[in-house]
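Incident log, support desk, overnight shift.

02:14 A customer reports that sequence design results differ from what the structure should imply. Their input is reproduced verbatim below. On-call engineer (initials T.W.) acknowledged and began investigating.
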């Protein structure tokens, strides 16, 4: 795959920030990474490992299975401008339900946090625990509005799956590889998986690592890319596969003002 540099911004759905110009991508991790770095790709070059005729098929099958089922996620990682993102939630693609909390900190700016629950086409949002939820009817919100919440791929898992390029097996349930990132429209990124916070405006490359369990579910996804003179690392831990998400509308909420519907 041809090497080219992504241009990254923090997605406006989380926080508006300026563009950065990354350097070349970092190679995928090998099997000798220390325990603290095992969840995300290392900056060291990968040790030679057998690609194996089934490595890609095994990982893609696990990704497709995970993408189609209910799962919970915990996310942490870097975003441009020396900021960090942390989040958690649960997603039920068949039931069209998601609950997500996230916070962006660092970069010399005040922390930004938000919480969202979506049940069908009803969105409930607030900034922090204890506040009253605000209800927004997504059927009335224009799709190009900053207030719209697209439930087509809210965690970015589908985009991640479609971006997987090369895959190598580093063990019975561990994989590394590269992502071929297509150019995003602003605020349409998919990384990190779970709480998408980065838009790659003109396409680019990244490396990833992933682990699966004995049942064929994906349990971790680590991604790494270069941003200027720094390395952005992010990790998503997945659990609760195939179980009830527990997502339901909040009991205490108020209605959004009419201007949110951009009439």
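02:41 Re-run completed on a clean worker. Output:
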């Amino acid at each position: 795959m041809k090497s080219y540099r992504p241009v990254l911004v923090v997605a406006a759905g989380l926080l508006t920030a300026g563009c950065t110009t990354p350097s070349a991508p970092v190679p995928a991790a090998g099997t000798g990474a220390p325990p603290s770095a095992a969840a995300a790709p290392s900056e060291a070059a990968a040790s030679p490992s057998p690609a194996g005729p089934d490595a890609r098929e095994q990982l893609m099958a696990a990704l497709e299975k995970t993408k189609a089922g209910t799962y919970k996620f915990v996310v942490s990682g870097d975003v441009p401008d020396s900021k960090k993102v942390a989040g958690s939630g649960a997603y039920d693609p068949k039931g069209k339900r998601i609950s997500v909390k996230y916070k962006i900190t660092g970069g010399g700016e005040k922390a930004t946090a938000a919480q969202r629950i979506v049940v069908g086409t009803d969105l409930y949002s607030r900034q922090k625990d204890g506040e009253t939820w605000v209800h927004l009817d997504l059927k009335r919100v224009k799709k190009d509005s900053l207030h719209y919440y697209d439930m087509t791929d809210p965690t970015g898992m589908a985009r991640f799956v479609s971006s997987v390029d090369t895959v190598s097996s580093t063990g019975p349930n561990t994989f590394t590889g590269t992502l071929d990132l297509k150019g995003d429209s602003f605020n349409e990124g998919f990384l990190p998986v779970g709480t998408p916070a980065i838009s790659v405006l003109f396409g680019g490359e990244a490396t990833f690592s992933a682990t699966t369990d004995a049942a064929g579910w994906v349990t971790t996804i680590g991604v790494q890319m270069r941003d200027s003179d720094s390395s952005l690392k992010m990790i998503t831990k997945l659990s609760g596969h195939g179980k009830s998400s527990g997502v339901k509308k909040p009991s205490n909420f108020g209605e959004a003002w009419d201007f949110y519907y951009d009439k």
